[in-house]
Amino acid sequence: MKKLMLIVNPAAGRGGFKVQFGEAMQILARGGMQTSLYFTSGKKEATRFVEQHAKEYDLVACVGGDGTLSEVLGGLMKVDSPPPVGYFPMGTTNDVATSLALPKNDMCAAATRLVRGEPHPYDIGGFGEDEYFAYIAAFGAFTEISYATPQDQKKALGHLAYVLQGASQLGKIERIPTRIEYDDGVFEGELVYGSMSNSTSVAGIVHLREEMVSLGDGISELVLVKDPGRIDAYGELAAAVLSRRFDSDSLQIIHTRKARFRFEKPVAWTRDGEAGGEHREIVLRNYHAPVRFIF
């Protein structure tokens, strides 16, 4: 029997995990897993659980959204020789699940994948000195949508809630003077959006081509968006991105292991859809495959 540490966020998504929970536990048991449950009741609790108990288990997995997974991975980064990690994606967006082709909002299918899957190397993002992100850190236009959108709207409307909240911010778009020192050069100019990511899916809406992203190669993607100049040009840029055309003069994608961001004044960031604080200077880096992800 393998000992499984299963961390459950009961507030994630629409709470649909409860319907299949018993059956999923049976699938895990039949697959040779002895499961211990840890229920979270607040932020950072998943990280604390992992730091304190992960070494006692053969596997660690979580039930929740990308924010819960981010906390779990952050905890594993502080554990020597961490056990492999699995994921039951039950959030609103589930970007990591999209990148890994994991079943979403289906406890039984996720349990089966955990039992039958194999561990693969997975890169983790570093945010400053001692913080981490599972797949993206970002600033600028629309980045606050994930945590500013009320939870009841997320549950009722799903992705539509993000779109509506984003549309309401069109009048708030700010040009941010930015200097970025990355592996092969320097970018200097005004941006309306910037991110460093390890994902083919961002906010469940933007999808990078699979050949552009490898999740365990030690390389992350900088996505930089300049002001296209007109409000209607944002629509044209969005249409190009949604159709996976990345040839706009306003959009630049750079592959790098490390990037130092400098701003004229503190700028608000998000990490995996959660508030990441304001920073005038910050270093982001790719930690090459410190964990193994089962999929």
What does this structure look like?
This protein has 295 residues and is an alpha+beta fold. It folds into 2 domains: 2-117, Probable inorganic polyphosphate/atp-NAD kinase, domain 1 (Rossmann fold, 3-Layer(aba) Sandwich), CATH 3.40.50; 131-288, Tumour Suppressor Smad4 (Sandwich), CATH 2.60.200.40. Helix content is 28%, strand content 38%. The protein is built from 9 helices and 16 strands. It has helices at 17-30, 45-53, 66-76, 95-100, 107-116, 145-148, 151-157, 159-167, 231-242; strands spanning 2-8, 33-39, 59-64, 85-89, 119-127, 131-133, 136-140, 176-182, 185-191, 193-197, 201-202, 206-207, 220-225, 251-256, 258-271, 274-294. The strands form 3 sheets. Strands 5, 6, 7, 8, 9, 10, 13, 14, 15 and 16 form a 10-stranded antiparallel beta sheet that branches. Strands 2-1-3-4 form a 4-stranded parallel beta sheet, sandwiched between helices. It has a two-stranded antiparallel ribbon with strand order 11-12. A hairpin with a 3-residue loop joins β5 and β6 (131-133). α2 (45-53) packs parallel to α3 (66-76) and α7 (151-157) packs across α8. The longest helix is centred in the N-terminal third of the chain and has 14 residues, at 17-30. The chain is elongated. It starts with a strand and ends with a strand. The relative contact order is 0.16.
